[in-house]
Automatic annotation (TrEMBL):
GO terms for biological process: DNA repair. Keywords: ATP-binding, DNA damage, DNA repair, DNA-binding, Helicase, Hydrolase, Nucleotide-binding, Plasmid. PANTHER family: ATP-DEPENDENT DNA HELICASE HOMOLOG RECG, CHLOROPLASTIC. The lineage of its organism: Bacteria, Pseudomonadati, Pseudomonadota, Gammaproteobacteria, Vibrionales. This is Helicase-related protein. It comes from Vibrio chaetopteri.
Length: 638
């Protein structure tokens, strides 16, 4: 349902009292009108005086013909014009005719329509032709959606705060309000109504029809781990399995790097296989896939764990002893792979789809492609959930389990430097190297070949050369997506073995790379990266415990929005609090049938966000009133 993004009064106003650049309706007589090349210009005489009038509309346009006729006929005309000041002179430009159906009304303004002929007032005029029919159809559709919620009318009005007004009147007045206050009231009602419908749709999500029966105790495989699982980790395994058996279609596992998400996911996967199920583990990179595959094989050598790869990589990994395949088969217990799983699953269905580092993968990839409705449980794991998932957690729409404790104490101090503090950062890096620790530089640009807007960014290639001059090639390594796989692998090997002390890279190392003794990361031009990316990079530091450092250094003054975002990173060390802050900064995304991971959650409304605060308020009212949502008459368990 498309609603106005702003309103415009089409009552006659004052061309003298409004500000430069504003729009106003004027009434007067066109005293002259002529064209010169592509420009039409003339004069309009109003009760406030005479004003120069100009237009760049084509000679054949309706407005040009109307002005030419008005100049010859000398009849009074009303125009919507834009005020423009040049020196001490006030001009009126871009005149528009006001359709008779809109005269003297306060009308809605809508986002630009793809059909050019329906932009501006033309859209409002066309809407007015079919308005009552559209109102009736919209009201009928909304009432049909509401009826499935089985809410008493009085309770419904209480939740959406619609007292003494009918739905049809709300729909009419949100488009053609008597005043701004009335428009805001009607919009607020529809915002809450959209929130309620979204809550109801999630409450009625398809449940697991016949969950598998787990054959062993939850702790049956805990002794396979090389360490004793913490209470949090054990509780997360137990909670995820319980949520599945209660029919929950999805759950979320949250934990920063080093808190043990992988061992929790592995234990959950083992129970699914033990119960006769099939598991897919989707990861964003082959590097992370190697890590998870290796851990699964070490934990459960008796299972058929397969690493799904493209055909170009099969031979190389097979030589290294990996159980590899290019296509999913029903004989596999657990399949580990990137998005290649989606394209090569050969109609094989899964009982558990575990998406690790979910912020790196698209919503449609996770849910639409791999999930069999009524059968598959979707487990999302991340240190920093996308705003869409985080909103579901905050609103209680999905079970989630957080693991917060590290096996060894760890802290990463994050500091934002200004663009003129480069020397300070250089000294900090030299101090870190002098203490025997390793340093990682992250650049947002690979080479100095790019032109234009990227010229003020530091590129990885140039920075590498700068540090080679200080410490030599044996100590400084370079890795990024523009180099060959062999070169990158050698750089990582050198860093892990201790030969390399400084690694200059791009976001190539964002996820899945562990460098022993790495205690310092410097991110250059951090304003060009998102909060989640920055936190993932920060997670590479101090993996074995201790105090690490994350320095953020732009190379030019940054915008206020970027400053707020980077300060948010500095103020939030753990992923959960950072994801919550990111939710408030970026919006929650589409929690309906759409695919937006952040930004506007539309649902019923078009061109407007369903605000997180509005959604939260509706949920609180529903819960405080013990209202039942869904056709079953039972409130969904979170």
């Amino acid at each position: 349902m498309r609603l106005p993004t702003d309103y415009l009064s089409l009552n006659v106003g004052s061309a003298l009292d409004c500000q430069d650049g504003s729009t106003v309706v004027v009434r007067g007589v066109i005293t002259r009108w002529q064209r010169h090349y592509r420009r039409g210009y003339g004069e309009i005489s109003t009760n406030e005086g005479r004003f120069e009038l100009s237009s760049f509309d084509p000679a054949s346009s309706e407005i040009n013909q109307a002005l030419r006729f008005a100049a010859s006929d000398r009849h009074t005309i009303e125009l919507l014009v834009k005020v423009k000041d040049v020196g001490q002179q006030r001009y009126l430009t871009t005149p528009k005719l006001i359709p008779d159906s809109l005269r003297l009304k306060r009308v809605g303004l809508y986002k630009t329509c793809r059909v050019k002929a329906l932009n501006g007032l033309s859209y409002s005029a066309k809407l007015s032709e079919y308005f009552e029919g559209l109102i009736a159809a919209s009201a009928s559709y909304i009432r049909e959606r509401i009826s499935s919620m089985q809410l008493p009318p009085a309770k419904l009005r209480e939740v959406i705060e619609a007292h003494g007004i009918q739905l049809e009147d709300v729909l009419r007045e949100v488009h053609y309000p008597s005043d701004t206050a009335r428009a805001q009231t009607c919009f607020s009602i529809l915002q809450k109504l959209a929130s309620l419908l979204m809550v109801a749709s999630k409450a009625c999500d398809s449940r697991i029809d016949a969950p598998l029966t787990f054959k062993k105790e939850v702790n049956a495989y805990f002794d396979r781990a090389s360490f004793c699982l913490t209470d949090e980790q054990q509780g997360a395994v137990r909670g995820i399995l319980s949520a599945y058996q209660q029919g929950a279609p999805r759950s979320v596992l949250m934990g920063d790097v080093g808190t043990g998400k992988t061992i929790v996911g592995a234990m959950v996967a083992r129970h699914f296989v033990d119960a006769g199920g099939r598991v897919a583990i989707m990861i964003p990179s082959v590097i992370l896939g190697i890590q998870i595959y290796t851990e699964l094989v070490d934990l459960f050598p008796e299972l058929s764990v397969c690493f799904l790869l493209n055909r170009a990589e099969l031979a190389r990994f097979k030589e290294r002893g990996f159980n590899v395949a290019a296509e999913v088969s029903e004989s596999m217990d657990i399949v580990v792979g990137t998005s290649a799983i989606i394209h090569n699953r050969a109609s094989v269905e899964f009982d558990l789809v575990w998406v690790d580092e979910e912020q790196r993968l698209g919503v449609s990839q996770k849910e639409a492609e791999l999930v069999t409705v009524g059968r598959t449980h979707l487990l999302l794991s991340s240190a920093t959930c996308i705003p869409r998932t985080q909103a579901m957690l905050e609103l209680g729409m999905v079970p989630y389990f957080a693991i917060t404790r590290y096996h060894t104490p760890r802290q990463v101090l994050t500091e934002l430097f200004s663009h003129n503090q480069v020397v300070d950062v250089v000294h900090r890096v030299q101090d870190t190297v002098a203490k025997g620790f390793k340093v990682l530089f992250i650049c947002t640009k690979r080479e100095s070949l790019q032109e234009g807007s990227q010229q003020d960014r530091v590129d990885a290639q140039s920075l590498y050369q700068d540090w080679v001059e200080v410490y030599g090639k044996d100590s400084v390594k370079l890795a990024h997506g523009g180099l060959s796989k062999e070169v990158n692998d050698q750089a990582m090997t050198d860093m892990k073995s201790g030969c390399g002390r400084i690694l200059v890279s791009t976001t190539f190392v964002e996820v899945g790379v562990t460098i022993p003794n790495l205690m310092h990361v410097v991110i250059i031009n951090p304003e060009n990266l998102g909060l989640m990316q920055l936190h993932q990079i920060r997670g590479r530091v101090a993996r074995s415990g201790g105090v690490g450092y994350c320095d953020l250094i732009p190379t030019k003054p940054i915008s206020d929005d970027s400053l707020i975002r980077l300060k948010t990173l500095c103020e939030n060390e753990d992923g959960f609090s950072l994801a919550k802050a990111d939710l408030l900064l970026r919006g929650m995304g589409d929690m309906g049938d759409g695919t937006a991971q952040s930004g506007q959650g539309k649902g019923l409304l078009v061109d407007h966000a369903i605000e997180f605060e509005s959604l939260n308020a509706v949920i609180e009212k529903v819960e405080s009133s013990s209202l039942m949502l869904g056709t079953s008459g039972e409130k969904k368990q979170s």
